[in-house]
Amino acid sequence: MSAVTKIRGKVVVITGGARGIGLATATALKSLGAKVAIGDIDKKAVEESGSARDLDHYGVLDVTDPVSFTGFLDEVERTLGPIDVLINNAGIMPTGKFVDEPDQITHRILDINVYGVILGSKLALTRMLLRRSGHIINIASLAGESHIPGLATYNASKHAVLGFTDTLREEYRGSGVSFSSVLPTLTNTELGSGVTTPKIMRPAEPEEIAEAIVGLICAPKPKVRVTMVAGIIAQVVNALPEAVGDALARSLGSGRAFLDDVDVEKRKAYEERVRKD
Ligand code: NAD
């Protein structure tokens, strides 16, 4: 069966869909005939992106706020029908030395990247279980299977998303609902601006992550790593004795990529956007 046949008519909600990976995914799914809703905390960006791509529903959504999230899902179901797929994509990645991270930023990373995913999963799963059908796709990161200086809290948040998603998959086995994690490598979006890609690993394009998500919806599986090469390198590093794996990661430049090697000027606009409340 072709991707169009599998995806046409499906109601898909994407959080943080105003730009980057979320918007690329919305665009890909829309072109295959899905009914796509994007929600984002950035009102101007979500309205511009939603109308430019002629998406089926778009509006403000704060994934850390249960009232906002519930209202958004209710509105989507009222206008488009039962939600088939929820993609918990909203996330932020402030970089820097851990001791310099203000508590407010630590809370914000965990609120959006972890609580937002847990909240969205709970709200969608409650609805999907009644229908014995649905798919929850959580955007984690290869940072969820590794440890990268300059990203301690972000790493923790993505490790949490992977553990959470795997646990739901087991807890709701046989329920008719599927659970998947997506693990992108560094990807060319505003989130990665000014970051030097570690050696060997070219950055991905958001369209490549979107393509992997389309593949997941067509044929659900627990995890997909993108790019394939970066995924293999991460798995090899993890399979090695810890000291050897860490030394290999350092030799590829991961120790400096999110600290000394950051182009501060190029990254400034992103850091300002995610650090303001
Ligand atoms: P991005 O900054 O381009 O887009 C993220 C979107 O999330 C933004 O539009 C932002 O306004 C929105 N958002 C932030 N807080 C929100 C909230 N509280 N409620 C709703 N929306 C909110 O980033 P991206 O690169 O497209 O990242 C998307 C996801 O992919 C994130 O979870 C990120 O951690 C993950 N990821 C990104 C990369 C990368 O290198 N770009 C790599 C691995 C994983």
TrEMBL record:
Coiled coil: none annotated. Signal peptide: none annotated. Gene3D superfamilies: NAD(P)-binding Rossmann-like Domain. Keywords: Oxidoreductase. InterPro entries: NAD(P)-bd_dom_sf, Sc_DH/Rdtase_CS, SDR_fam. Transmembrane segments: none annotated. One of its GO terms (molecular function) is oxidoreductase activity, acting on the CH-OH group of donors, NAD or NADP as acceptor. Belongs to the short-chain dehydrogenases/reductases (SDR) family. This is Short-chain dehydrogenase. It comes from Nocardia donostiensis.
